[in-house]
Amino acid sequence: MKAHMKSLRIPFVLMALAFAGVAWGQQTPLQTADVEQQMSADEFKAAGLDKLSAQELAALNAWLQRKVVQETAKATESAKEEGRKEVVEKNRGFFDFGSKEAIESSIVGNFDGFAKGRQYTLENGQVWEQIEPASLAGVRKTNPKVKIKPGIMNNWFLQIEGYNTAAKVRRIK
């Protein structure tokens, strides 16, 4: 049982060593040092790696190298996708950028009806300007919920919750 537990620890130790250089920023994944260079002589011996032949040690190092490269590639791809999503979400409404889903938020402060040239600041930080005359006379609300829907040819329409009238807007911030 004790020998079995010891043999299970070796793969975990090796994986930790393989990723240690990348995590600490000491080496790039393509330059990961061999396991015997990452460990002290005592650690190398304690892990039982001194019992491996040169060929076995080379095979282990090759496997670790592939594993580090694979894991780094996965992490890089995941980070790229997260960054792409952030850019798309942050820039929705500018030109024809981002998804075609409606933007739902609330206007910060008072809403006193629609008027051409009026600017609407949303809770999400976006600022939209009304670019055509539209009327919603007599409507006074504080922090009303809004939905900004994309139309054709990069047109966007702001609608106040509970009302059917929509105003054509463009994102300015």
Give the helix/strand layout.
Blueprint: H1 2-23, H2 35-38, H3 41-46, H4 54-90, E1 103-106, E2 110-111, E3 119-121, E4 127-130, E5 141-142, E6 145-150, E7 156-160, E8 166-171
Antiparallel strand pairs: 1-6, 2-5, 3-4, 4-8, 6-7, 7-8
What does this structure look like?
This protein has helices at 2-23, 35-38, 41-46, 54-90, and strands at residues 103-106, 110-111, 119-121, 127-130, 141-142, 145-150, 156-160, 166-171. The chain folds into two domains: 2-90; 103-171. A hairpin with a 5-residue loop joins strand 6 (145-150) and strand 7 (156-160). It is α+β, with helices and mostly antiparallel strands. The chain contains four helices and eight strands. The radius of gyration is 29 Å and the shape is rod-shaped. The strands form two sheets. It has a six-stranded antiparallel β-sheet, with no helix packed on it. The protein has a two-stranded antiparallel ribbon with strand order 2-5.
Distance between the termini: 65 Å
State mean pLDDT (0 to 100 scale).
79
Q: Give the amount of beta strand, in percent.
A: 15-25%
Largest sheet: 6 strands, antiparallel
Structural class: alpha+beta
Low-confidence stretches: 1-9, 24-30
Indicate the radius of gyration in whole angstroms: 29 Å
Give, in order, the helices and strands: HHHHEEEEEEEE
Number of H- or I-type helical stretches: 4
β-strand number: 8
Provide the domain count: 2
Portion of residues within helices: 25-40%
Order of neighbouring strands in the sheet with most strands? 1-6-7-8-4-3
